[in-house]
Amino acid sequence: MDTENPSAPPCAESRNAGKNHPCAGGLTHDNARHTTRFTVIGNHLAQHRELSLLAIGLGVHIQSLPKGARVDIKSLTARFPEGATRIAAALRELESHGYLRRERSRIPGGRIVTRTVSCNQPGRHDGRAASADHARGSRPVATDHAHDTAAPAKPKKRTPRRPLPAVPRPGYPAPALLQAAADLLAGLRRNDPRLLLSACDTAHLAPGVAAWLERDVTPDAVRQALTADLPPEGVRRPAALLAHRLTALLPPPPPFRGPAAPPSAAPHRMRNCDGCDRGIRSPEPGARCRDCREQSAPTAL
After folding, report:
1. How far, in Å, CA of 16 to CA of 37, rounded?
2. Contact call for residues 141 and 40 (beta carbons, < 8 A)
3. Range of the domain at 184
4. Distance of alpha carbon 27 from alpha carbon 29, whole angstroms
5. For a tag site, which of 56, 79, 91, 163 has the least CB within 10 Å?
6. What is the pTM of this model?
7. What is the mean pLDDT of residues 51-73?
């Protein structure tokens, strides 16, 4: 048999100076020859000086798996107590040192899969050369394993959201009026949690509410018009619904009020009648009341 055992000493040594004495420290082996269920692992992996212990153990485990076994992070996390973060880091170590490589290929049907290849000797990428070595009876080499995993789904392009409908504008957008409108919109969620609005939607709808308030509509009336009879199946986009109601239900302006009538003339001051001394209103002193004027009028013949 031409397979070398790198762990065997180059020649027999005499048992002197207590070098191989059972009481001496160090490792001893109690080995039995495997005839079934074994994997040949190179010492370059088992004794690698740069790989972590987790990466070495994971590399040995992967080389022992049959073709088609799952070696993705989720499957390895379910198999071992180490978490996904540590296992992912160990896989990256093995990949950086050539013990793993990932190849993307398209299979019949157009689906793209990622094939993970486990290499028992880093740098040997030609599987046909490895098969020829086996045929010549050279040192057995663990067969590379390939594992198909579904390619990550491409991110779907989101359809841009349609802009909100336009809303009425107040004739005089005073800051206090717009703030009152924004406060009213922010409080709608207390009437119905489905009417929770973003700051952007509130800024868009506030001029529409201000136009209602400008038309002498009370805040309670505006709130009732916006929240009454909401669809029972749900509100898909509350800002769009409110924008529609602000426009479709906009009340007419209040009735026109003409200029105020001029104030009436001030009443005449109180004076005493010059005939009976009764109190009367007169613009000038010396005036008489109506009775006195009738008595003094000449009698017709």
Report:
1. 38
2. yes
3. 175-229+236-248
4. 7
5. 163
6. 0.37
7. 90
Please say whether the dihedral angle defined by the alpha carbons of residues 195, 200, 202 and 207, taken in this order, is positive or negative. negative
Say how many domains are in the chain: 2
Please, which residues bridge with residue 271 across strands? 280
Instruction: Give domain status of residue 157, yes or no.
Output: no
- The CATH number of the domain holding residue 105 is 1.10.10
Q: For residue 143, which of 135, 153, 134, 151 has the smallest C-alpha distance?
A: 134
Q: How far apart are CA 275 and CA 277, in angstroms?
A: 6
CA dihedral of residues 279, 282, 283, 284 (deg, nearest 10): -70
Per-residue pLDDT tens over the stretch 161-213: 788 899 999 998 899 999 999 999 999 998 888 899 999 999 999 999 999 99
245-269 tens-digit pLDDT = 999 999 998 886 656 666 666 777 8
Q: In angstroms, what CA-CA distances link 285 with 2, 6, 83, 90, 246?
A: 151, 144, 112, 118, 66
Query: Is 218 part of any domain?
Result: yes
For residue 41, what are its two tokens? 């692992």
Sorted by sequence, the CB contacts under 8 Å of residue 137 that are 6+ apart come out as: 2
The Cα–Cα gap between 11 and 5 comes to: 12
Residue 279, helix vs strand vs coil: strand
Distance CA 296, CA 249 (A): 72
**In 137-284, alpha helices (H):** 175-186, 188-191, 199-214, 219-227, 238-248
One-letter amino acid at 129 equals A
97-153 pLDDT tens trace: 999 888 888 888 778 877 888 888 887 655 444 444 443 333 333 334 444 444 444
Q: In 3-state terms, what secondary structure has residue 114? A: strand
